[in-house]
Specification:
This protein has 301 residues and is mainly alpha-helical. It has helices spanning 3-13, 21-24, 27-34, 58-79, 88-113, 120-125, 136-139, 145-166, 172-200, 204-217, 229-234, 245-259, 281-295. It has one domain: Ferritin, core subunit, four-helix bundle (Ferritin, Up-down Bundle), CATH 1.20.1260.
Amino acid sequence: MSTESANRTQEFLHQDASVPAAEAGSPASWSDAHGDVSVDALELAAELAGAGEKAGSADIAEYALWLGDDALILSQQLGAWITYAPELEEDVALGNIALDLLGHARSFLRYAGSWDGRSEDDLAYFRDEPELRSCWLVEQPNGDFAQTIARQFLISTYLLELYTALRGSTDATFAAIAEKAVKEVDYHRDHAVQWVLRLAGGTDESRRRIIRAFADTWPYVAELFRDEPLIDRLGDAAVRPSSLRAGFDAVVDAVFAEAELEIPAGSTSSGGGRHGSHATGLGHILSEMQVLARRHPGATW
């Protein structure tokens, strides 16, 4: 893939983006924004408008769980690549993306728990599988590196559309979290796009793997855009999922055209994550993520 070709793709992706390409698309800016991987540096209060605000209804809290659980499970998945990524730079990059997502998860889960007095840790570590509200796409196994990149490209493209729209939420806390998250997810999408183009334009083996990866992950896309009754009840506080599909498809079409890939054909997953029905992999993810907190409840260090 030529530099000129990559630049054309980046120009398209940032036509309507909230973050100018000059700020979000350059490697120098990525290292400035994502060079510190310390969790201690994350100030959760800065991500919330009025840290003491309580969710206004059970429906607001439920929607916060949708968003928080997607970010939480994806963060856990990406964290598993640390020391296993194909390049040292990818250990750092995937770790940084995982930390960004963990910050989003903490913000949304803290807000969700404000409704009934549960903490973010209560929601992360002490809910069982049927209580989670994550979508099936983030629950899909890491697989090989191409599988992870395909999943990351699809989910970050969706999340960028979602958070861009959620900035206009009538709920001040949702709008504030989205304002911060959209800048980070813009980087996440750019990172995934570059790897999709690199794998599709690399060796015969790398191309075969990214084609297979998209075939494996594509069935789980439709669930992201289903309008559930909760959305009708929330009105302008939430974002209607179906309204995001056109923007998502435009980005996917542009990147696939550049990579000379075709949209996979085949079945669509039934999904069901928003109602507590999950892919088989979620149980394994939770058992690893929750084991320490459940074995030593209340422990600090």
